[in-house]
Amino acid sequence: MLSNSCFDHLVIAVPDLRKYVEQCEVRLGVAAVDGGAHPGLGTANALLGLELSDELADSLGLKNQSGPNPLTYLEILGPDPEQDPASAATRLAGITSPTVQRWAIRPDDFDGLVTAAARSREPRVDLGEVHDMTRRRPDGEVLDWRLTRRTPLPWSGIQPFLIDWKDSDHPARQEMPWVRLEKLWAASDAPAAVGEVLGFFGIGLDIIAPGDEAGETEGLHTQLKGPGGSWTL
């Protein structure tokens, strides 16, 4: 089924933002830009533009984004040292090393897809609740968007969440270096059930059993490529 959604962004959660932004630069050869803080949530982020390989874009089944700079990005998410560490505990629970935590898709009809999920039966797709969000960029501009959020993350983050940037300037429009998303796959003990849920969104994603490869754990995994090398998570 052809999806009416675009790949929006991939979230790598880390226990120490500055440390792992530096590690990312060593591995990929580019420095992520400061994205700003999430007030009241205890987190901040750093961003890189993200280009999907043609092969991956086709296999995922999501809408292709034309042009040299698609509205897709990589978010490195970690604790904000300027906020109470306890505030980030829920969003970063269990994060002790860089982890592909979750990913977002941007549907043409956000409300329509939320409604369709609420009415779904087989498979049952639980998106959680819709939340309004804000973030102040380092240049002072305030971004205002909404997203779906469910705790704990559905299917260990393999099920994407939905995002709608409303009238805000998309984060990928700001000046930043770009890296390439070479591969994206998932590890799950319930591949058939996960596949049915992804099928609801029109997404095709390779799903393997945890432990099939060294270091594989339940959830999302990725291979990124930059001018300085590759990073597999």
Automatic annotation (TrEMBL):
Q: Which InterPro entries does the record cross-reference, listed alphabetically?
A: Glyas_Bleomycin-R_OHBP_Dase, Glyoxalase-like_dom
UniProt-recorded name of the protein: Glyoxalase-like domain-containing protein
> Pfam families, per this entry?
Glyoxalase_3
What lineage does the source organism belong to? Answer: Bacteria, Bacillati, Actinomycetota, Actinomycetes, Micrococcales
Q: Domain of life of the organism in this record?
A: Bacteria
Span of domain Glyoxalase-like: 7-194
